Amino acid sequence: MAKFVTIGERLSTTAPAVNRAFTNRDPEPILKRAKEQLDAGAVYLDVNIGPAESDGEELMKWAVQLLQSEFDNVPLALDTSNRKAIEAGISVYNRSKGKPIVNSADAAGRIENIDLAAANDAIVIALCNGEGIAKDNDERMAFCQMLLERGLEHGMEAEDLWFDPLFLVVKGMQDKQMDVLECIKMFSEMGLNSTGGLSNNSNGMPKHIRPIMDSTLVAMAIMQGLTSAIVNPCDLRLMETIKSCDVFKGNTLYADSYLEI
Amino acid sequence: MPFTAKSGKFNASINTVEIGTGDKAIKIGGENVLPLYSFDAPIENAPKVGIEITDFGMENEPDCIKKYYEGCDTLADIAKKAASFEGVDFLCFRMEGGDPNGANKTVEELIGALKEIAAVVDLPLAVAGCKNAEKDAQLLSKAAEALDGKNAMFLSAKEENYKTVGAAAGLAYKQIVGAESSVDINLAKQLNVLMTQLGVNPKSVVMNVGTATAGYGFEYVVSTMDRIKAAALSQNDTNLQMPIVTPVASETWSVKESVSSEADVPEWGCQETRGIDMEVETAIADIASGSNAVILKHPTSIATISNLMKELV
């Protein structure tokens, strides 16, 4: 089994400092956040430029080239609802360290992002959602099937579709948590890769609680077969948990210094 | 449906490590396939064979080894002779006499002997200690200094002395450092991590992960090497991509099958044949499990393994 793939989530326009940096094309705050995440062990970096309706293409190109030239062609997830911006990003992307990830497609309005990934030999995050949150796992798996078929029809390898069950917030949707975990198991039993925005679960919780909830959930999800997650790699507890899970699953060979490497 | 063979080559590869300098320098490692799987992808560097001599010269050697060194009076003569046998890629000098529980020779005496050898042999050199971690720290550090510029291989740094040996051989004199663990895959990885954290270039590290003589718990050796190569290649574990160097002679020439005389066990037949068989069988089993170099003693064993590698790779 391959090692768990962490996708660093901290380059996002939802953070005002990052938003400003993207808008002003100011490299310094972006590179700083990217470096923090890579030093902490992130494999991929998510580049969320928001909707970027007016200048998305130019902005995504700028961000991809900035990050890849500074950090030895670090692999990236291109995250925006602007499809042309994703294509523009891929057009300048160097894939020597890994294929680009299209973030994301769903089973409703964003299903064409699967076609986009197929046309560009990219990985795609396939969110098992239609309009609104799936009501149960029957619905999730129906969406999964639909997305998988769409990818295969367009010539993708199944391994390049990373299925996202959509992690749900505990505060308000506590009764749905086991469904999500069960869904990951179903992906895994079908041999599919999976990922998702894990920290959704702890939204709205006190700051000191979130690492505890996130690392517990990641361990439970990895047990179910989760192969990747979009996370805050600067959360030490979470990263230590992921490395420990990789040891238990045999994804990496144990050595006393395993947390340092 | 037609059969389409799928190559079993990996995206990761074992590090290539060069030992020695000039025309006689050798390279080990570099492959991106399982041991000897040359049908999956070309193996650039066939496993190499070293010959071992010790500071005792021929004193403790069995007659079947002694006879090949007839007329050699000094250690330098022995070294020259050893280097001349067919198939020898490098020479390993084992400073056995340094053992405080044995002859307890001084560091100066042994380094003197090493220099004597280095002066007359142009093959790549390996230096092995006396298996006492404390003494080896002194011996190997001084040896690294004595062989400055020769790009020699030092066997080995262990958990107890890796800081001293790694700092001298790896950092100060930029030689090749062997990291020794005893059939313990987790320790093998850990030592490489520690060595790298010390600042030693991972591309200057080789592993001695231990061996046994075939038949003496050898399945543990096989599984250790198998798992190291699997992690290095299929999981791209950079802390295990160091080539493996296995001293074989020092193991196989001490088991009863190799040392019992024909007079004692006539039903086992010729002692020399048995000794060679044990050495060859162990060496090829090590290579098939992942060793990139083996260190042997009997000229016939060396020629046999060397020729086998030429045929297979």
Describe the structure.
The complex is a heterodimer of chains A (261) and B (313). Chain A has 261 residues and is α/β, with parallel strands linked by helices. Chain A has a single domain, classed as Alpha-Beta Barrel (TIM Barrel), CATH 3.20.20. Chain A has ten helices and eight strands. Chain A has an eight-stranded parallel sheet. In chain A, helix 9 runs parallel beside helix 10. The two termini of chain A are 18 Å apart. In chain A, 43% of the residues are buried. Chain B has 313 residues and is of the alpha/beta class. Chain B has one domain: Dihydropteroate synthase-like (TIM Barrel, Alpha-Beta Barrel). Helices cover 40% and strands 14% of the residues of chain B. In chain B, the strands form two sheets. An eight-stranded parallel sheet of chain B has the order 8-7-6-5-4-3-10-9. In chain B, helix 5 links the parallel strand 6 and strand 7. Chain B is globular. Chains A and B meet through loops of A and helix 6 of B.
